[in-house]
Amino acid sequence: MEKVYRTHCARMDHGGCGLLVxxxxxxxxxxxxxxxxxxxxxxxxxxxLAAIEKLHHPHRLTRPLLRVGSxxxxxxxxxxxxxxxxxxxxxxxxxxxxxxxxxxxxxxxAPKGLEFWLMMRLANVIGSPNVAGIGNMCHxxxxxxxxxxxxxxxxxxxxxxxxxxxxxxxxxxxxxEESTISSRLRRALDRGSSLxxxxxxxxxxxxxxxxWLRPRPGTDSALAMGMMRVMVEEGLVDMEFVRRWTVGFQxxxxxxxxxxxxxxxxxxxxxxxxxxxAARLYSKERPSAIQMGNALEHTTxxxxxxxxxxxxxxLSGNLEEPGGNVKPSPPHLMRLREFxxxxxxxxxxxxxxxxxxxxxxxxxxxxxxxxxxxxLEGDPHPIKMAYLQGTNPILSYPDSQRVRKALExxxxxxxxxxxxTPTAALADLVLPVATHMEFDDIGxxxxxxxxxxARPKIVDPPGEAWSDIRILNQLGRRLGPKDAFWExxxxxxxxxxSPSGLTYEEFKERLxxxxxxxxxxxxxxxxxTPSGKVELRCDQLRDRGLDPLPGxxxxxxxxxxxxxxxxxxxxSAKNPVFFHSxxxxxxxxxxxxxxxxxxxxxxxAALLGIGDGExxxxxxxxxxxxxKAKIVQGLDPRVVCAAYGWWFPERGYETLFGWKDANxxxxxxxxxxxxxxxxxxxxxxxxxxxxxxQGDG
Length: 697
Known about the structure:
Blueprint: E1 2-8, E2 18-24, E3 27-33, H1 46-49, H2 51-55, E4 65-67, E5 76-78, H3 81-99, E6 104-108, H4 115-126, E7 131-133, H5 140-150, E8 155-156, E9 164-168, H6 182-190, E10 194-198, E11 211-213, H7 220-233, H8 239-245, E12 246-247, H9 249-256, H10 261-268, H11 272-284, E13 288-292, H12 302-315, E14 325-326, H13 336-339, H14 348-351, E15 366-367, H15 368-377, E16 385-389, H16 393-396, H17 400-408, E17 412-417, E18 429-432, E19 441-443, E20 451-455, H18 468-479, H19 489-497, H20 504-510, E21 512-514, H21 522-525, E22 534-535, H22 539-543, E23 568-573, H23 587-592, E24 597-600, H24 602-608, E25 615-620, E26 623-631, E27 639-643, E28 686-692
Parallel strand pairs: 6-7, 6-16, 7-15, 9-10, 9-13, 10-11, 12-22, 16-17, 17-18, 23-27, 24-26
Antiparallel strand pairs: 1-2, 2-3, 4-5, 4-18, 8-14, 19-20, 20-21, 23-28, 25-26, 25-28
Helix pairs in contact: 3-18, 4-18, 5-12, 7-10, 7-11, 7-12, 10-11, 15-17
């Protein structure tokens, strides 16, 4: 007998698209888009359609594994959950008593549901201040810079829709920007919105754009300053809003004198006439909105790029306007501070590995590179063990060579995963994880977004796989005190939902719980800043010893500009059929994208004698990798765009699944300087060399 269930995608991406899932005899046999979903309207990407292959994949981890050979050798002993949890809890207690709980690091990749917050809760309960993550390179620079400027992280109000949409470092048509689904963008364009794309490389949406600006990677703040200068010079600023609701306009105007379009063109490579035209289009086609993307967060000047764009939103008068950049209105749920038991560690920030760097307090996780530094150098104190879930640091952390060395040097490493990965292969203990459709979960909780999603259990997980939520809760009950955790995981979901008046069973029927959308709330409440206004001049930054005004600063590092040895600028792109480094073992996805592709222009290919599909070496000061050349019309000849997240599950333990052959983070650096506010490092805008490789790979 067949039954169709409604749910939302997750784990294949950040999640959000509505799905119709057909189950027969306890197995998922069909996945398709839900046309009644109010956020995806029937759209589903190849990743979502490949969920069946993931669920039933023969290489799923199904039992806890204890290492019996050398790290990375691939020799394991299958054990039961009682033994696995006993080993893990005993090790945590032992290290805590001997070295202190601060010597334990918990790590998470992109949060998928409740598991990240439950990890934070467990860390707080046992006294570890160190939850490591990639927030400093993913969403926190945008969020913190926006909060400093006007008190919230803005969403695009696609539903009205905007008359002009700017995709800035965001390939929204093929990716998901923190629960903003591409179908909402396409619907807005179909209803007449104009589109400006700010991206060095062509995307699938470029053909639909009214304008396409191609800045040099790492120079977005200069481009925003140039657009603001045009707006001020040509009277395109919403002066009524600026006079009543901003501070620092005069100082910002004076700063903009340093950005004549001739200079901005020299910095960004974007012709002055296009900057002027884009500023006019964005300012005049109101309401207009900017979708900031993850690409903005990958340099040592990330916060200034996001700050400048936030100020641009304010000058245009599109904040909290229907069809503009609006304030999220989350539904009423359990307060996040209560859920993670923040009061159990009031001195947490003073104990974190990142404490001496003076990053913004909203950055609640330890930046990845500082975790690596502590693993290797014991700075600011030694780290003896780590528990990682949903993350593959050897691929996703900067400077992969150092990351591998750091993980190998740990006294004990536990990894919770769906499949064996290069990182999991180095672990002492590997725990098998259930994936979406195999347990009940809530999506979007803890994020400043306007809705949360039900992700109900549809089928049982294979073998002895457990959800991350169950693993953490059961581990917490062993470590105690027991009143900090729950007898059954279903109680967690009901407790989170309790302020809404819903149980999880009732929530599953609704599937989505919305907050109440508001517009122009600042008229009654002001903005959530010290001045109650938009702070174009931000004294909070001045008090931290940083520039209170937006501006451009060249991304800094060991090499900050092209040279004879490294004549090109390296950037990267996430493959739309994978999620970061995940799913290279899914047959349908590998058929679409079988190999890592390095995008180069026809001019560059001709100059270097490289043919389409030939292997090339990409080199920086840190190392070299090989990827296949893909010749792309429209890419600037000075830019090389490498593929991100590549490893090869089919190669096995002998090479640790080919972890370094095509891995772009072999080419990146994890040493200072970092962005002084949020700790970002240079993952883009890196000088590189390119040459044709011999052989077929």
